[in-house]
Amino acid sequence: MLTGQPASARSFYENLLHDRVVVLLIGKKPIQEREAALAALCGATWTACSLTGLSAARLSQVVGAVNYRVAATKDGVPYVARVSSVYVRRGDGWKLTFHQHVSW
């Protein structure tokens, strides 16, 4: 998630998102296709983002996880969630392969 417009978020996530992905967002069906994940992650305008309670763990040489609380405004509506993400290291860097928002 990035503060800003959907176009800038798409550019960010196109570089970050793994080819194989699972995205679980509040109120949405599970997403397991990259293009659908890009559309879901980049379809909103986010402002006033605040990330707190960050924790990170390296689960292996090639897998890492992060968890944090986000408070933001999503398309003009207050939004609060706990976010968990799993990254896999590839030759071109760390790629997001699992991303979940849970009501908080």
TrEMBL record:
<dbReference type="Pfam" id="PF14534">
    <property type="entry name" value="DUF4440"/>
</dbReference>
<dbReference type="InterPro" id="IPR027843">
    <property type="entry name" value="DUF4440"/>
</dbReference>
<dbReference type="InterPro" id="IPR032710">
    <property type="entry name" value="NTF2-like_dom_sf"/>
</dbReference>
<feature type="domain" description="DUF4440">
    <location>
        <begin position="11"/>
        <end position="96"/>
    </location>
</feature>
<protein>
    <recommendedName>
        <fullName>DUF4440 domain-containing protein</fullName>
    </recommendedName>
</protein>
